Prior knowledge:
- The chain has 20 helices and 4 strands.
- It is mostly helical.
- It has a two-stranded antiparallel ribbon. Strands 3-4 form a two-stranded antiparallel ribbon.
- It is elongated, with a radius of gyration of 30 Å.
Amino acid sequence: MGCFAPNVFVIPSPICMNDQKTLSCSHIPLRNYPNFRCKKLHSYPVLAFSCINGSVDRGIAIKEGKMSKFKWVKKNPNLTEEQKRALYKPPFKMTKRCKALMKQIICFSTENGSVARMLAAWVKSTEPRRADWLSVLRELEKLNHPLYFEVTEHAFTEESFEANIRDYTKIIHLYATENKLQEAENALIAMKNKGFLCDQVTLTALLHMYSKAGNLKLVEDTIEEMKLLGVPLDKRSYGSIIMAYIRAGMLASADSILREMEAQEIFAGREVYKALLRAHSMLGDSQGAQRVFDAIQLARIIPDAKVCGLLINAYVTSGQTREARIAFDNMRRSGLEPNDKCVGLVLSGYERENKLKEALDLLIELERNGVIIGKEASDLLAKWFRRLGVVEEVEHVLRDFAVKTPQPIL
């Protein structure tokens, strides 16, 4: 795609070249997003990088005459206890100009003006440096303040913030985490208009986002760009590519990427392997499922009962009940206790082939080893035996077995 050439996106740039002036970024109320660390969701408006004609109160596009309209707050009687603690106990190392802004943000009310006017007035009166912006943003992030992202948005429009590529990468990563494709692309264009080039961190974040969005073309374009720039593909990048192919139903391509990773001794995460195994399992592709299952063990990931159940399901779906039973027995030999799903899958295979004797042998063996039959397997057996009209006979066989089996001495 060549550095995500602008002709791919029809998003206007936040830089207007007509008057050779940097214009403001309009604030568009969008859905909730988390902070840059993406630990949990908060009710914050997201950043927006869209071109306007200087008519919105943002950044240096605000006329000086409008700044006086903001009323500096001295005291707000409606503060919560948490806000009061934050107000009266600011960080010790925070400068006076930062403490003054923090007070205005904590006591902020729309009756006094907009956030943009407040910040513009603060910039004019205190002439902050980048360190001041970062100090305020770190404190807002720590407090999980609802104006955190709106303040961050405005900071990008101020020359004193001195936005660098890591600042843009954080925003793009935020949008990627929330699967907000359009907003991330707007931020990407704004970043390029500032003269910053995409690096591995940015491209990896975009790759992950495009994969989650199911946009295979943009995933492949991003891969090509990474190769042109000489950016190596890491574990996370490969995982995103595999997930994109899985979502597109191109399992052969996903398997090919997996083999490419193995050749470089790079191993994907557990969830990637599980997703690929599930895709093969649902299609009844027992060979593909077995290959992925072997790859899981090659990556030194210990399969659990759910992973084994996906392999068993692949064999059952493809009509290979014997192989399904072998996989079931191998799971038990490795020390894994089969869950209700695994038992039900094997029994369903016997039901399809009408192998009642094999099903009874399995039940007796499980009973001997103290494995309790769960609801799913029990319901399947009840329907099967009822259909055959052998419910009483089966109950008699199992009852006799229970009587003859010696009970363990406690």
